[in-house]
Write a structure and sequence with these properties.
TIM Barrel; 2 domains; 18% strand; 297 residues; alpha/beta; three-stranded antiparallel sheet; nine-stranded mixed sheet
Length: 297
């Protein structure tokens, strides 16, 4: 039956309006579908990407074990379920190889400091960068309130998606308790860290809360797992019980030489980690796989 049977000539203007609306709706549907299939659009994951992720986001579990290596060729031979590697330096082929072996891959990047060796360093504005990070040459604290900084972090999350990472580990997300050179506060830090979590989740990425010990209770609902450095050495591990209580794993690294040189001290460390249900590694500070002792035996 033709459209003419339903719409006499005298209602031609209505027909035109109907067709225009239909074409418009069809176009909108196509546009939504196109953006829904892309996790790296110009909006950086804002505006509905969450509902468009085709695969469910990886949720780490308490039993997950891990390896952390950020420098050198990644040693893929450890019998763990999670690898944490550098976002920029790790080849996509390595990520794919680890995943083919049944492992999840977390990709590290600094979200709170500029690093002058990174490929996108030139995109930071002078006003974005503050004081140097003590002990880390070439790094400066970032003004995490900056829209430019946030856009760059969105681009880094897009890179994590493009390289096939299952999750991310944004570092230096506690600038407000350091001498950053900016008037950062607990409130601005919470806002920034939740921004990172939301942007990660919109892209289908799990996200670790790195250190930021004073805000663990505030952020446990926003992050999928915690990554801590040296809580045993500095007697800060009690703070992480809230993640365990919420069935979110705690990955812990200790660097003190006594743990690598003294088997008795290491045994004591591992007993405490086991009681807490932490996954503790004793690693070199450079995270270059020079040595590795795991409390997960």
């Amino acid at each position: 039956m033709s459209q003419k049977d339903f719409f006499p000539v005298r209602n031609f203007s209505f027909l035109v309006l109907f067709l225009c609306i239909a074409i418009f709706l069809t176009g909108c549907g196509g546009s939504v579908s196109a953006s829904g299939n892309s996790l790296t659009g110009s909006n950086g994951g804002n505006g509905g990407t969450t509902s468009s992720v085709s695969a469910p986001r990886w949720h780490p579990v308490l039993s997950d074990t891990w390896q952390w290596q950020l420098r050198g060729t990644v040693n893929t031979g450890y019998a763990v379920s999670v690898y944490d590697v550098d976002l920029f330096d790790t080849p996509m082929a390595t990520i794919q190889s680890l995943q083919a072996a049944g492992k999840k891959v977390v990709c590290y990047f600094s979200a709170g400091s500029s690093e002058n060796w990174r490929s996108d360093f030139s995109q930071f504005q002078a006003a974005d960068m503050g004081n140097n990070l003590t002990g880390w040459a070439g790094e400066r604290w970032l003004d995490t309130r900056s829209s430019n900084v946030r856009q760059m972090m969105q681009a880094r999350l897009d890179l994590a998606v493009a390289k096939g990472c299952n999750g991310v580990e944004p570092d230096n997300v506690d600038g407000y308790v350091n001498r950053s050179g900016f008037p950062l506060t607990a409130a601005t830090q919470l806002d920034y860290n939740r921004f990172l979590a939301n942007e990660s989740h919109q892209r289908g990425l799990a996200i670790a809360l790195k250190n930021d010990i004073n805000q663990l209770s505030d952020l446990v609902g926003d992050f999928d797992f915690a990554l801590n450095e040296q809580c045993h050495e500095f007697n800060e591990c009690d703070n992480y019980q809230i993640f365990i209580n919420n069935n979110k794993p705690v990955f812990n690294a200790e660097y003190a030489s006594v743990y690598s040189s003294d088997p008795i001290m290491r045994q004591t460390l591992c007993a405490d980690a086991a009681a807490r249900r932490f996954h503790t590694l004793v690693l070199p500070l450079m995270l270059d796989d020079k040595y590795r002792y795991s409390c997960d035996l």
